[in-house]
Input
Amino acid sequence: MSLDWIYSAISWILLTWHGIWDALGVPDDAVLGTNWTWVLAIVFLVVTLRAILFPVFVKQIKSQRAMQALQPKVKEVQEKHKDDKEAMQKAMMELYQTEKVNPLMGCLPMFVQIPVFLGLFHVLNRLRPDNLGTERYGWSAEQFYDATHAGLFTAPLAGKFGSSAAELEALGASGGAVKVIAAILVLVMMLTTYLTSRQMILKTGWAEDPQQKMIQRMMLYGIPATLLFSGALFPLGVVIYWVTNNLITLGQQQWVLRKFPPANLATGATPPAPIVP
Output
């Protein structure tokens, strides 16, 4: 299945925001070693996508609330079938079907954003000196050239922590600057990824359902840990996208948790202790 439509849609949003900032008078040339029109275009690409996905985010919160309200029944099933794992899983599935609750709905925003992230990675990964002149996905040759040579504090947006010496030479970049900026951004990416999961767990507590708890652990520890290695392969533009996305998620979660507090907080009960299992 061709993903060209995703690449074209992402490119259109990115180029539209670049055009807006250019029209508003943001310098297209580097200021403090940074081409702000392209950096802001990536930031507001995230803002646009998160605005579109906000209803999905609300569904995620509602699903988590439904799972939380279902915990007493989940405990009953676990106690009843504690000696038969297969029977427990079958009973849990029947419970979810009866109550019309989908445990995977809590991960829906992540699943929806995966093709968007891959699309952005594909588009930004094409910003290479050996790929100039292309006009795919609505880009002009001039736009490809400008974006390829755009930088963040002198580190090109197309550069990576793991860029080879030949790639850095083609970009006209300093290997030291790229590695320092990339390392800082990857660490911030890991930290904000961890904080988005921690924020939710501290408010709602750990799930009683083993399957849900496993997902929570993966979100809290597994994904940030993998970013330590995979982040070295991401162009700086992708890392900027990820960090911005995490910061917006933190803000959205804080707003939603205040607007729709967990049952234990809404009733004035003591919130679950944030003990890491």
In short: The longest strand covers residues 151-152. The CA atoms of residues 17 and 41 lie 5 Å apart. The chain has a mean pLDDT of 82. The first helix runs from residue 4 to 23.
